[in-house]
């Protein structure tokens, strides 16, 4: 196992990357603080040039390569953010770069990586498949491998985030950090324990990928599935990072997909900032268990902002459905003239806007003389849609509302 980086390594990394990586803002969120009942601070790493904290570790690693290693070129495996960071800074430094990415990587991350001048190889279903392929190419072609998390120089670079957080807000009680392979939280935890030993450090994983939790707690939980937080969907965490986090973490919690979606939507609507699922995992943990953080001064990292625009649109609309502001009502009615008008009249009176209407006369269990009319609608608040549902029932219609859960 490689030697653990120290606080001195992290401070050296901060000096090394200064000026080439953005010192991102650390801002207090009043609305989120009120919602959670704590003093919430956000570190906006999604504002980096490649929209993720990964630049810190990647650049720290690249700057310490020998001339020979630079001339041979580098290779990396990543679901997206690490790949962009390596590609961007490799091009800045004149180093050829090859990036191996899982085949399911969002198109935006692939095209952005290629846009930074790297050669992209798509391979496998998950990060671990891409990682194995990158190691194969490393051995075959003589590239220098830039690990996304299990490398002391990568960890030290990531730890510069922790330095900045505690320089900007020294009296933090708790730091909450998303965990995939563990490089970010390893670096932050080393910095935080050196600067403020008693600070509470909480890691967060997607419920579908509890790999680090299983490694630390020696438990066995189901692993796999489609997660919005693909940036932390790692089957096998780092060896070095696991050892660091065993010593430094106070807790590691799991968050459900619904909470991750809600966190992404809240950051867009409240903070007016775009954050990918992995980057919103820390806030998701707070939303899931606000009592745990009540009265504390808590910071989390918005560690990445690379989310596909179509996926983001889906997340925002689904959030409106959960809020009750968009609904799909299935209204059973007799298939006769005037039935549709009677239904739409109720929506008009309730002040609810109809988005789309569909008739279903064939694929229904209703009698042949009846029909199902599906109405997608939107309103200023959930009460208005509740009102139109009640009005339809009072007018003699049978109504069902579609649910996401």
From TrEMBL:
<dbReference type="GO" id="GO:0004794">
    <property type="term" value="F:threonine deaminase activity"/>
</dbReference>
<dbReference type="GO" id="GO:0003941">
    <property type="term" value="F:L-serine ammonia-lyase activity"/>
</dbReference>
<dbReference type="Pfam" id="PF01842">
    <property type="entry name" value="ACT"/>
</dbReference>
<dbReference type="InterPro" id="IPR045865">
    <property type="entry name" value="ACT-like_dom_sf"/>
</dbReference>
<protein>
    <submittedName>
        <fullName>Threonine ammonia-lyase</fullName>
        <ecNumber>4.3.1.19</ecNumber>
    </submittedName>
</protein>
<keyword id="KW-0663">Pyridoxal phosphate</keyword>
<dbReference type="InterPro" id="IPR005789">
    <property type="entry name" value="Thr_deHydtase_catblc"/>
</dbReference>
<dbReference type="InterPro" id="IPR036052">
    <property type="entry name" value="TrpB-like_PALP_sf"/>
</dbReference>
<dbReference type="GO" id="GO:0006565">
    <property type="term" value="P:L-serine catabolic process"/>
</dbReference>
<dbReference type="GO" id="GO:0009097">
    <property type="term" value="P:isoleucine biosynthetic process"/>
</dbReference>
<dbReference type="InterPro" id="IPR050147">
    <property type="entry name" value="Ser/Thr_Dehydratase"/>
</dbReference>
<dbReference type="InterPro" id="IPR001926">
    <property type="entry name" value="TrpB-like_PALP"/>
</dbReference>
<dbReference type="InterPro" id="IPR044561">
    <property type="entry name" value="ACT_ThrD-II-like"/>
</dbReference>
<dbReference type="GO" id="GO:0006567">
    <property type="term" value="P:L-threonine catabolic process"/>
</dbReference>
<feature type="domain" description="ACT">
    <location>
        <begin position="328"/>
        <end position="405"/>
    </location>
</feature>
<dbReference type="InterPro" id="IPR002912">
    <property type="entry name" value="ACT_dom"/>
</dbReference>
<comment type="similarity">
    <text>Belongs to the serine/threonine dehydratase family.</text>
</comment>
<dbReference type="GO" id="GO:0030170">
    <property type="term" value="F:pyridoxal phosphate binding"/>
</dbReference>
<keyword id="KW-0456">Lyase</keyword>
<dbReference type="Pfam" id="PF00291">
    <property type="entry name" value="PALP"/>
</dbReference>
């Amino acid at each position: 196992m490689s030697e653990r980086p120290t606080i001195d390594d992290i401070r050296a990394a901060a000096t090394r990357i200064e000026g080439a990586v953005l010192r991102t803002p650390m801002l207090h969120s009043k609305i989120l603080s009120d919602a959670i009942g704590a003093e919430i601070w956000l570190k906006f790493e999604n504002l980096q040039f490649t929209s993720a904290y990964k630049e810190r570790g990647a650049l720290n690693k690249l700057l310490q390569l020998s001339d020979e290693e630079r001339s041979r070129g580098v290779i990396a495996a990543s679901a997206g953010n690490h790949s962009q960071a390596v590609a961007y800074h490799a091009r800045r430094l004149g180093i050829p770069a090859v990036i191996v990415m899982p085949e399911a990587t969002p198109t935006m991350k692939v095209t952005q990586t290629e846009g930074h001048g790297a050669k992209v190889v798509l391979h496998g279903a998950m990060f671990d498949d891409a990682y194995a392929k990158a190691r194969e190419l490393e051995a075959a072609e003589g590239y220098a491998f830039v690990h996304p998390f299990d490398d002391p120089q990568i960890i030290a670079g990531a730890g510069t985030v922790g330095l900045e957080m505690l320089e900007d807000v020294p009296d933090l009680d708790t730091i909450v950090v998303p965990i995939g392979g563990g490089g970010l939280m390893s670096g932050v935890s080393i910095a935080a324990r050196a600067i403020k030993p008693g600070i509470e450090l909480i890691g967060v994983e997607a419920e579908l990928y509890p790999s680090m939790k299983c490694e630390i707690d020696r438990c066995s939980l189901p692993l796999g599935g489609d997660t919005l937080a693909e940036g932390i969907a790692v089957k096998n965490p780092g060896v070095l990072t696991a050892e660091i986090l065993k010593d430094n973490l106070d807790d590691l919690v799991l968050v459900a997909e619904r909470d991750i979606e809600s966190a992404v939507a809240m950051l867009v609507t409240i903070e007016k900032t775009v954050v990918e699922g992995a980057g919103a995992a820390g806030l998701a943990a707070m939303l899931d268990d606000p009592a745990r953080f009540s009265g504390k001064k808590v910071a989390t990292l918005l560690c990445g902002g690379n989310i596909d625009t179509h996926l983001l649109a889906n997340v925002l609309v689904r959030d409106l459905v959960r809020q009750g502001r968009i609904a799909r009502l299935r209204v059973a009615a007799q298939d006769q003239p005037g039935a549709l008008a009677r239904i739409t009249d109720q929506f008009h009176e309730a002040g609810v806007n109809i988005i789309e209407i569909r008739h279903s006369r064939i694929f229904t269990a209703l009698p042949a003389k009846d029909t199902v009319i599906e109405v997608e609608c939107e309103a200023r608040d959930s009460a208005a849609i509740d009102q139109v549902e009640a009005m339809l029932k009072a007018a003699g219609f049978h109504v069902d509302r579609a649910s996401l859960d």
